[in-house]
Amino acid sequence: MPDVPQPIRDGKGGSDPGPRNVLLDRQNPDLLVAPSTDHGTVPNLKFSFSMAHTRIEQGGWTREVTQRELPVARTLSGVDMRLEPGAYRELHWHQQSEWAYILDGSCRISAVDQEGRNFLDDVRKGDLWFFPKGVPHHIQALDEGVEFLLVFDDGQFSENGTFLMSDFFACTPKSVLAKNFGWSLEQLAQIPEREKYIFSGQVPPPLDADRIVSPTGDVPRTFKHRMHAQAPARFSGGSVRITDSTNFAATTISAALVEIEPGGLRELHWHPTDDEWQYYLSGFGRMGVFASTGVARTFNFQGGDVGYVPFAYGHYIENLGDEPLVLLEMFRNPRFEDISLAQWMANTPPQITADTINVPRSLIESLRKDKQPVVR
Ligand code: MN
Ligand code: MN
User: Fold this and answer.
1) What is the pLDDT at residue 2?
2) pLDDT below 50 — which residues of the chain?
3) Structural contact between residues 305 and 280, judged by C-beta atoms closer than 8 angstroms
4) Which superfamily does 241-365 belong to?
5) For residue 136, which of 223, 227, 255, 199 has the smallest C-alpha distance?
6) Neighbours of ion ligand 2 (CB under 5 A)
């Protein structure tokens, strides 16, 4: 079977007669035959949503990649969710802040903050939202349905552990509910006996027909942002859109939407703030991660995969396919910040670097002094 990849590199290794999972081997060529520069032990930095349990409900489904699936991922966790037209993700809140990116379709979202100020808007593919921790909210798909990525600022989060309105009602004596709302016990006869979570519904009316005027007004800063509508910064090997506290009021989470052209490279860099949580939207490529002390490991990624880079670890991402490699780089930090290896070298007296890596001083002097996040 000549088309089956074998763990052979430069005459070393040997064939693998099996048993083996050839489909996974094909998706992870840099695990089966790692670059010879990989050394030592790096924790696993990849988990695919396709390897996660899918919770199927009436009107939609959801699956999550948290620290339980990817133990190194302590800062952020992610949820992939689909709602059919009109279906609800129930009114709820949680201990973590929630950042979301619409992957497909559109939905209506609402929230009410601690001052009673409200928020209601429609979001579609390429938009994001951010709900601060504890602020209650809901999601309802519009007429084309919706799929979105949720990112929470805690690796231990679980989508199955949120605070649901129906569950709160089911867990409170009806006599207390009646007293709280000024209703009769008979009026509470049909309340749910357990949580609803995701459930079918009717596509809501036009946005203006759904608006409620709160006596304290609207939330002071919108929870919605049109991330993909931002003009990208373009480079020779791709483009970058950054959404952080400089252009949106997401207080705990920042993000970069990176598109790497075929043959392009997200340059060698690291982050001075925090770990990086990645979600791959499309394409195929690899990430090499440098962990210091002679240790490095390479992972392959495609649409639907999650990647992770511990704080300060050096890394690059290379597009190995024939379509753009698109990913979200996410941080539990208000600002997106990275340090470019090339920019560091270009802005340091050149003889120092030339002496360090044994190349002519003229090569160092020819480096661009500005940042080139994506190169070819
Ligand atoms: Mn939520
Ligand atoms: Mn990075």
Assistant:
1) 57
2) none
3) yes
4) Jelly Rolls (2.60.120.10)
5) 223
6) 276
Ligand that comes closest to the CA of residue 134? 1
Strand partners, 225: 128
* CB half-sphere exposure, 118, CA atoms < 13 A: 11
Question: Is 51-225 CATH 2.60.120.10?
Answer: yes
pLDDT tens-digit map of 319-338: 999 999 999 999 999 999 99
What pLDDT shows up at residue 249? 85
The pLDDT, as a whole number, for residue 316 is 98
Quick check: do 51-225 and 241-365 share a fold? yes
Amino acid at the residue 132: P
In the residue annotation, 329 being an active-site residue is answered as yes
Query: What residues pair up with 285 in beta bridges, in sequence order?
Result: 301, 319
Distance CA 273, CA 331 (A): 8
Of the candidates 317, 335, 337, the residue with the CA atom closest to the CA atom of residue 327? 317
Q: What's the confidence (pLDDT) of residue 167?
A: 98
Q: What is the pTM of this model?
A: 0.96
- Cα–Cα distance for residue pair 362/350, rounded to 1 Å: 8
Distance 328 CA to ligand 2 centre (A): 10
Whether residue 45 contacts residue 290, with contact meaning beta carbons closer than 8 Å, is answered with: no
Question: Hey, what are 114's tokens?
Answer: 């601690």
Beta strand ranges found along 320-367 (DSSP E): 325-331, 339-340
Residue spans of the domains in the chain: they are 8-33, 51-225, 241-365
The runs of H, that is alpha helices, within the chain are: 22-27, 29-32, 165-170, 174-181, 341-346, 350-357, 361-365
DSSP 232: P
User: How many A from CA of 251 to the centre of ligand 2?
Assistant: 20
Q: Indicate the SS3 state at residue 293.
A: coil
Indicate the burial class of 376 (C-beta count within 10 angstroms; 0-12, 13-18, 19 or more): middle
Query: Do the Cβ atoms of 156 and 253 come closer than 8 Å?
Result: no
Catalytic residue among 259, 329, 337, 365: 329
